[in-house]
Amino acid sequence: MWRTGRPLFTETDFKNLGKEETQTEESKVDTEEKKKLKETINVIQNEYDSTPERTFGDMKIPVAVEKKYTPPTLEETAKTATDQIAPVYDAKISTAQTESEYKKKKKQAEKDDLYERAESSLAQIRASANTAKENTSNQAMKRGLSRSSIVAQLLNDIENEKLSAEGGILKDRDKAVGEIDDKINEIDATLLNKISELSAEKSYGINEKIQDLLASYEKKKNEVDEYNNKIRQQKAEFIANAKAQGIDLSEENSSEYVKMVADKTKAFYGYYYSLGEDALTELKKDKGYITDHIGSKGYETLKRYFEK
Predict the structure, then answer these.
(1) CA-CA distance, 106 to 86, in Å (whole number)?
(2) pLDDT tens-digit map of 210-266
(3) How far apart are the first and last CA of the chain?
(4) Is the separation of the CB atoms in 129 and 162 below 8 Å?
(5) Which of 46, 188, 225, 254 qualifies as a cystine partner to 54, CB 3.0-4.6 A?
(6) 169 CB neighbour count, 10 Å cutoff
């Protein structure tokens, strides 16, 4: 149900302080045989780690490790919520801006068309007026009336008609342009309202998501706490039962641990035995690696097999 760690420093290790052999630097590059050894050691370790129980005499204890759970910080939660929600509304805002810009361009094109048509009409009126003035002057000259007040009045009438016509065109143009400008202003106002609305929805959505995430973190934490409390309770029960039977629940006393060390020792022995006269030298080089897997006592036992 739980895993009790093997002591990192045993009483034997303490007594042997100052007596340890000088360790030769471990080889930088592994041979193919060395790689196979390490693969075998890893397989043995993984089999041990994945064993669902530990056996102490007739007592079998399920293996379980307390869960650890650290919920994200509020800052991390806010970022997660923003990353999930903001892009949706940012896309909607971008779409609204694109549509608004398209509508404004259409209205601007209408304004440009109004100016062009008005300019064309003004040009026609001016051309007609100039032609009329020219014809009037020519007729007056033929009749010898070029200085006549009547002719001057006719030319003045033509000019006034031209000015009146131009004024009418400009008035109609400016009125139509004003109406288009009003439409453009409406488009801008509609866009601002839409952006404001979407921004408010985005803020609400992010805050709502933050609350959902915080609730899920709290639920997860409660589940982990409940699981760990159950483990601790079962652990206490197993310890009490084991003490009543005089059983030491140290992990190295389990049948699975003993088998794991024996299997690793066998693998180590087979590899170094294959090295012949170099066995002891190579074994000393690998002292750190061997000790990590079978402990100092296991290393010393293995070494004695190759000492002459």
Answers:
(1) 30
(2) 999 999 999 999 999 999 999 888 888 887 887 888 878 788 888 999 999 999 999
(3) 45
(4) yes
(5) 254
(6) 18
